[in-house]
# Entry
Amino acid sequence: MVYAGSDETGVPVSIKILVAGGFGVGKTTLVGSVSEIRPLRTEEALTEPGRRVDVLIGVERKGTTTVALDFGRITIRDNLVVYLFGTPGQERFWFMWDDLARGALGAVVLADTRRLAGCFPAVDYFEKHHVPFVVAVNCFEGAREYEPKAITSALDLDPLVPVVLCDARQRSSGRDVLVALVEHALAILRRNPQPPPAPAT
Amino acid sequence: MSGMRGRDDSWLDDEAGPVVRPYALTHGRTRPAGALLDVIAMIIAVRGVQADLTDLEPEHLRLLRLCALPTSVADLAVDLDLPLGVVQILLGDLRERSLITVHQPVPPANLPGADILREVVDGLRRL
# Structure
């Protein structure tokens, strides 16, 4: 079988990884440290039926809202590219996550131990949607260092979910986070080899 | 062609309030014709098409030039400096007219063998 995007067609294989977490936790820094970052704008229409109506309060006349995504790409080799999308953490942007998370290999949930609650929505979302994820604790200066085990317990994570400490400013550290995620996603795929239903094209 | 004009213009009246420019480009449409294009779907312009392109917007034509080689939807949005949603709609128009081919991404579980993900791990380690 020839897969869309396989080498046989000469079309690059593209892989999608999300970077999520609360406001100011270092998503832009992480994406920028491991890839060439480009600002990607989304202009979300608020007039469309079925959108979360609560975002309209106070902005009834606005029509659309601009949301900036951190978009990075890592070329692994010719015809194999990893795309990173730093997504706004607030729950009100979940409608956007649905499009981004579909078909994603996995997600990095960035956490700040001083404001751990900031990453709860992302953890909930990826658990609910069965998107493989790792929690990367961005070690800010002045923040108390925690053992990964303490984070697993504080976030009530499945013990199989990797928790890694990182410094989002360091390329090598960001790289290790991504490696941990892809290894984790691989392990999950090996445990559940049956493919999910094919998405609509 | 249907879908390009007329159909969704009815709300663009005096009561509609200010209309933000990017969606004026799509004639008020907020979803593309056909299935939504994934942000990492690869788009390729179909070569050698003899078609009347006069009713297309300049942005449609720029998109066609930009995807002469396979290019992702997200990259096209950045290159064109337009919001993602707008570019998805414009690409939907081009797809409807068979001016582009769309390669939706392969779900990770369907990638041909686990080798690709191993390659990704090795490639990331070299960063």
About this structure: The radius of gyration of chain B is 17 Å. Residues 1-7 of chain B have pLDDT under 50 and may be disordered. The longest strand of chain B covers residues 42-45. Strands of chain B lie at 42-45, 71-72, 100-103.
